[in-house]
């Protein structure tokens, strides 16, 4: 049996899935929490949804992985016979100018070179890779990058209007993120519609605490809202999204803030939290708005308006739109957001079936009104499956 182990490592967490590549089913999944902190927790879910929680100290990421492997191979939690049943390990990583690739020492150097861009996230990702290299010694280790899907963007879309030398010297350009999610839902929609990806013009809306919009023309990303970092584009839970950069200097002067402090504000204290003053969680903001909180209502209106503008601009960029997809935690579960975004979009042929939208709870659903020229779908994202597919493809290329 060919299984791929998928890893998403955080500083004190490690999410995992074991996926059977013969039928792409999840054999086991879970999360290791409080790594390096007293009171570690391993959550282990069977493929049928049953859950087991183990309280055990997890000094390092390798200790966490070793315990997960023990669960996979022994006792009542056993789902595989031996390590031979795992053929590859897939890692979610942030950035590269390459498509998914096997992790070699040279590739690892390239990954490490992006540390300045991702000072909080990259060290944990790298730690996860090194831990897996020990626990899964001899297995093919594959990096799947969050931006790779966007490498098909034309230069006119990814360049910034800054001195060209900064692009040449430092590679400063739009990269985009959530690429694995945008790729999955666009491919899934093509299958649901019985079409080839090359036949479709799609706008995908990945909406969560971090959000991005993507224009996908003929199966390729041609533009996306996030930029050099994940700060750009839409206002998000705590991130500003696009703002006038000249705001930052007067704020710094008036508030006596350093550049690092400004960076912290625009990443962690702005967005939906900054405008609403309530929370970065959409559910809390929606509840406050329903209770008459004007700032909460304003935050929701601002974001919906921004999403509408991206849909409009991407429709223009592609010279048409066949489908609109909502995914991510908010996109999949918030009927209010979907209704707000699709309101007054008749010019584009976007008409939502309000009754279907009201009862949609995150399952794959066609929300298009009968007279909508554009298909409107909710498609739950599955980044882990895309990572597993890429890892398995690279494994098979080595063992054909």
UniProtKB/TrEMBL annotation:
Entries under InterPro entries matching the protein: Ac/propionate_kinase, Aliphatic_acid_kin_short-chain, Aliphatic_acid_kinase_CS, ATPase_NBD
Pfam family of the protein (one): Acetate_kinase
Cofactor note text: Mg(2+). Can also accept Mn(2+).
Pathway it works in: Metabolic intermediate biosynthesis; acetyl-CoA biosynthesis; acetyl-CoA from acetate: step 1/2
Physiological role: Catalyzes the formation of acetyl phosphate from acetate and ATP. Can also catalyze the reverse reaction.
Subunit structure, interactors included: Homodimer.
Essential cofactor(s): Mg(2+); Mn(2+)
Keywords for this protein: ATP-binding, Cytoplasm, Kinase, Magnesium, Metal-binding, Nucleotide-binding, Transferase
EC annotation from Swiss-Prot or TrEMBL: 2.7.2.1
Residues annotated as binding substrate: 92
The protein's name: Acetate kinase
Residues with site note (Transition state stabilizer): 178, 239
